[in-house]
From TrEMBL, chain B:
It is found in: Cell membrane. Its main location: membrane. It is a multi-pass membrane protein. NCBIfam families: urea_trans_UrtC. It comes from the Bacteria. CDD domains: TM_PBP1_LivM_like (cd06581). The gene is urtC. It comes from Pontiella agarivorans. Keywords: Cell membrane, Membrane, Transmembrane, Transmembrane helix. This is Urea ABC transporter permease subunit UrtC. InterPro entries: ABC_transp_permease, ABC_transptr_urea_perm_UrtC, LivM-like. Pfam families: BPD_transp_2 (PF02653).
């Protein structure tokens, strides 16, 4: 059971970290508003579920797939807007992106509070996500946890394919490595930046939509995850997808195993301390890109 | 001698003037317009400004953005609060000397320790029995932690962004520790109900007034000290590291030592502010030691101008005043305004208010000088009037 609790924690970390691995790992933009894009995705799902229950309850079993797509679209568009209005002026000042996006996160949080109110909201789960799967009598695995795990694996594969096997991924990697050169060979680097940032935000939106299956949504929900997520990405080695997966897995599993022996909060302290300690020894993270400096 | 040292601290008249204005504002202006309640509030803000001053040195000049400054600030605060709490506990024990109470509680032990079934004073609290030891602790402990941490991080050449995230994680860690070790730190409530310092009632109006002046003077003093550091060779190397680290390293300097110094110096200055906060406000809580106040400290510094020690104080005052007054009247708008300030200061004027003053200040001064000279003014308004005067 403890192992599965770790696995669902792992999926949460991984889904959050995927978007950030693109934005922070590839573009070196410190997006403190990442959690708020997740909240945006979650609220989109809640709104769609409310609309569906009100107007056409017969569609209830199928709406969730549509909600995930809409969550992606909403977060993508928001990300596109933020990049266009703000982040593109700050590419050469990494630390300033941190401050500016913190401001964005405050504004977005307050915006959610303005529109949806401060209380917690939750989406209505379709029936096929409720209940649990029990292969034997003693093991009881909740279906929404399985769905979460499945989504995070599918998304990881999708991102890996996008980054390493597609034309667009090639453009992104070229832009990140040498902007001038990429420009010179005819890549529209501004467009690549914009779409990459928006895509990272869109993935956060998907994460938010999936998170509604395991918890409720509140305006400050995203900010709870943001430090954890940054630590996962940094620990894994920024820019390495495999590293991110490894880091999410090791942090989540060690935390849930330690929780078995210690209290939850102390387990968190230990894991954080160990991670920071390892980062001091290996500042580049678990899997470092070998680059000559 | 005196003149020379002033010249060393203030290279030009503008710096001298701006420091004088700050001193007048803090020592004359604010006390003149505030009653003792407001003055206490101002003292609270000023004790936060210490952290912003520290950040100017390590972020603005050293290029090291620490997102965990509140942790160091909080250590100073907790040290002071521990001393005050022990004294409060002793006083209560003196007042209620009856045997019945002695049987129920342990004499001279802070109340929250009683609630957590601790019967003996923890070893960690021993230094806070004496005032001088507390003073040493609140300066040395944060400095030492920053020194060790900085050494570990900078020797491995961990750069800006990663450093920021690591300090953020450490700050979070610190908060969790403060919250969970209830018997030692009072848990989520923190250390509350501090009344006297060395037998002096710190909650009275006169004490609030005196503490305000103490805070303001110490703040001015720490600005002078920071100026002294920044105008020395050490400060110049720090700036060189910020602008082109590799070049300094190739010139034969051990870059990490300079960074560690800047980081530790900032930590010590912040800790003084934390200690003053405990004295002024009468409590210390883990809510003040987390990431959010750390980020606020960074924004104080950014709004005032990350390269201006004096600007940092104004930045703190403006943001804190805004938070207090606007959040009471328009609680919903305030977060939008705050976010807007974050974005505007980073995108439009990255040197903050001090940068604006530097850019437009002299122009504005000339403008005022030009149009406030009465003869010029008169001549502009009615040339004939001045002419007729001369004729008569």
């Amino acid at each position: 059971m403890q192992g599965f609790a770790g696995l669902s924690q792992f999926s949460v970390f991984l889904l959050m970290a995927l978007g950030l691995a693109i934005i922070f790992g590839q573009m070196k933009v410190i997006n403190m508003a990442h959690g708020e894009f997740l909240t945006a995705g979650a609220y989109t799902t809640v709104v769609i579920s409310d609309l569906v229950t009100k107007y056409c309850p017969s569609l209830l079993p199928y709406y969730f797939i549509f909600a995930i797509i809409m969550a992606f679209v909403v977060a993508f568009l928001l990300g596109y807007l933020v990049e266009f209005m703000l982040v593109r002026h700050l590419y050469h000042r990494a630390l300033d992106t941190l401050l500016a996006t913190w401001g964005v996160s405050m504004i977005m949080q307050q915006g959610f509070r303005f529109i949806f109110g401060g209380r917690e909201d939750s989406a209505i789960l379709p029936e096929w996500l409720m209940g649990s799967w029990s292969p034997t009598d003693t093991i009881d695995i909740p279906l929404n946890g399985l769905f979460l795990l499945g989504t995070s694996i599918v998304m990881t594969l999708l991102v890996a394919f996008l980054m390493h096997r597609s034309r667009w991924g090639l453009n992104v990697r070229a832009t990140v490595q040498n902007r001038e050169m990429a420009n010179a060979v005819g890549i529209n680097t501004k467009k690549v930046d914009r779409v990459t940032f928006a895509l990272g935000c869109g993935i956060a939106g998907i994460a938010g939509a999936v998170f509604t299956t395991i918890g409720s949504v509140s305006p400050a929900a995203g900010s709870l995850y943001i430090v954890d997520t940054f630590i996962v990405v940094v620990f894994g080695g920024a820019g390495s997808l495999l590293g991110t997966v490894l880091a999410a897995f090791s942090i989540a599993q060690s935390q849930s195993i330690l929780e078995f022996f210690l209290s939850g909060v102390l387990a968190k302290v230990w894991v954080l301390a160990i991670v920071v300690g390892i980062l001091m020894i290996k500042p580049q993270g678990l899997i470092a890109n070998r680059v000559r400096k | 001698m005196f003149k020379q040292s002033i010249k060393k601290l203030f290279p030009d008249r503008a710096h001298q003037l701006s420091f004088l204005i700050l001193a007048v504002v803090l020592l004359v202006g604010i006390p003149l317009f505030c009653d003792s309640f407001r003055l206490n509030m101002a003292a609270k803000y000023l004790s936060l400004a210490f952290a912003a001053v520290g950040l100017v040195i390590c972020w603005g000049y050293g290029g090291i953005l620490s997102l965990g400054q509140a942790a160091f600030w909080g250590i100073g605060g907790y040290c002071m609060a521990a001393f005050l709490k022990l004294e409060a506990a002793r006083n209560i024990a003196m007042e209620q000397g009856s045997d019945q109470i002695k049987a129920l509680t342990t004499v001279g032990l802070p109340d929250f320790m009683d609630w957590n079934q601790i019967t003996e004073l923890p070893r960690l609290w021993y230094p806070f029995k004496s005032f001088p030891l507390t003073m040493i602790c609140l300066l040395v402990v944060p400095g030492l932690i920053a020194y060790l941490l900085g050494n570990a991080i900078f020797k491995r050449r961990v750069n800006g962004v990663y450093f920021a995230i690591i300090t953020q994680a450490l700050c979070w860690l610190m908060e969790i520790l403060f919250v969970t070790s209830q018997g030692l730190t009072g848990g989520i409530n923190g250390i509350t109900d501090l009344r006297t310092c060395l037998g002096w009632d710190i909650q009275s109006d006169s004490a609030h007034n005196i503490l305000y002046f103490l805070t303001a003077l110490l703040l001015l003093g720490s600005i002078l000290l920071s100026k002294r550091v920044l105008h020395s060779k050490m400060g110049k190397i720090l700036v060189a590291i910020r602008d082109m680290e590799d070049r300094v390293r190739f010139s034969g300097y051990d870059v990490s030592n300079f960074k560690v110094f800047a980081f530790a110096f900032a930590a010590v200055i912040s800790a003084i502010g934390g200690a003053l906060f405990s004295l002024n406000v009468g409590f210390m809580s883990p809510k003040l030691v987390t990431i959010e106040p750390s980020i606020y400290m960074v924004i104080f510094c950014a709004l005032g101008g990350r390269r201006s020690l004096i600007g940092a104080v104004y930045g703190t005052l403006i943001v804190c005043l805004g938070r207090t007054f606007l959040s009471e009247k328009f609680p919903e708008l305030w977060m939008f305004i705050m976010g807007g300030i974050f974005i505007l200061t980073t995108v439009v004027c990255s040197d903050g208010l001090a940068g604006l003053v530097e850019q437009y200040g002299s122009r504005l001064w000339n403008f005022i000088k030009k149009y406030t000279r009465i003869d010029v003014l008169l001549a502009k308004i009615s040339p004939r009037l001045t002419l007729s005067k001369e004729q008569s």
